[in-house]
């Protein structure tokens, strides 16, 4: 079976200018996703979809392929990840290349590792799933969340306000790092998988949205923790 890794890295970024090529602990953050995909040994092709020539050059230096640039239609603020993936798969098909599986990696996901990709792709095949998504548990039960209404705090679900955490269903959210797919099924429904995703649970210490400078610093701290823990385990 053949597989492709697609890293989505457009040039525009409003909240952190140049986010996808900004240095993260000594190298462009984009390189972490590229290196994880390459070192996993899973993919016939590791490519970056971008509209930015500087990002394209950074990607090539890191060992990724950039066989074509992203179109204007999939490079604006309204294009979805699914739009980008569908464009990439269609262009490869026009060039005579079709893949059985794919992984979509975000360019600002330094916590992605070769080991996580291997585990996710193995889960995809073993469970005959259409998609696998890394998820992380909410640190506080969302069922006991509150909203501000008329200047006062109110429980969104009053019936759960006094329940113990252990009595509430565990809830998870997207880790925002990567997704693995069965290509034919993905394309047939344009990513709206009728059978949903199989979850791969990852620790909260290895997940961080990066939307502002404070998030960036937190991500660097968590990354250092992750690498130090790996080194400690090897000893």
Succession of helices and strands? EEEHEHHEHEEEEEHEH
**What is the alpha-carbon Rg in Å?**
19 Å
Calculate the terminal CA-CA distance, rounded to whole Å: 36 Å
* Number of β-strand runs: 11
Number of helices: 6
The residue-averaged pLDDT reads 96
Uncertain spans: none
Structural class: alpha/beta
Helix percentage:
25-40%
β-sheet strand percentage: 15-25%
Overall, the morphology is globular
| Main β-sheet description | 7 strands, mixed
Fold and architecture overview:
This protein has 235 residues and is of the alpha/beta class. It contains six helices and eleven strands. It has helices at residues 30-40, 53-61, 81-94, 114-126, 183-189, 213-234, and strands at residues 3-8, 23-24, 27-28, 45-49, 101-105, 131-137, 146-149, 152-155, 172-174, 178-182, 198-201. Strands 1, 4, 5, 6, 9, 10 and 11 form a seven-stranded mixed beta sheet that branches. Strands 2-3 form a two-stranded antiparallel sheet. A hairpin with a 2-residue loop joins strand 7 (146-149) and strand 8. The longest helix has 22 residues, at 213-234. The model has no long low-confidence stretch (mean pLDDT 96).
């Amino acid at each position: 079976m053949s597989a492709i890794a697609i890293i989505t890295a457009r040039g525009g970024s409003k909240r952190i200018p140049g986010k996808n090529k900004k240095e993260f602990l000594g190298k462009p953050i984009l390189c972490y996703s590229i290196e994880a995909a390459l070192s996993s040994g899973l993919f016939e092709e590791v490519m970056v979809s971008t509209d930015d020539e500087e990002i394209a050059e950074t990607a090539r230096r890191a060992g990724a392929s950039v066989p074509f640039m992203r179109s204007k239609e999939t490079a604006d603020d309204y294009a979805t990840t699914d739009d980008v993936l569908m464009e990439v798969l269609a262009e490869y098909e026009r060039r005579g290349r079709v893949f059985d599986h794919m992984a979509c990696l975000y360019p600002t996901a330094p916590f992605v590792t070769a080991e996580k990709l291997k585990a996710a792709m193995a889960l995809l095949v073993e469970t005959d799933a259409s998609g696998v998504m890394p998820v992380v548990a909410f640190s506080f039960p969302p069922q006991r969340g509150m909203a501000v209404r008329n200047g006062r705090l109110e429980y969104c679900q009053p019936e759960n306000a006094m329940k113990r955490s252990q009595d509430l269903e565990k809830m998870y959210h997207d880790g925002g790092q990567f997704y693995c797919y069965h290509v034919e099924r993905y394309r047939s429904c344009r990513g709206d998988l009728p059978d949903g995703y199989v979850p791969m649970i990852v620790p909260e210490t290895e997940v961080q949205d990066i939307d502002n400078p404070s998030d960036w610093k937190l991500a660097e701290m968590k990354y250092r923790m992750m690498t130090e823990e790996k080194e400690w385990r090897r000893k």
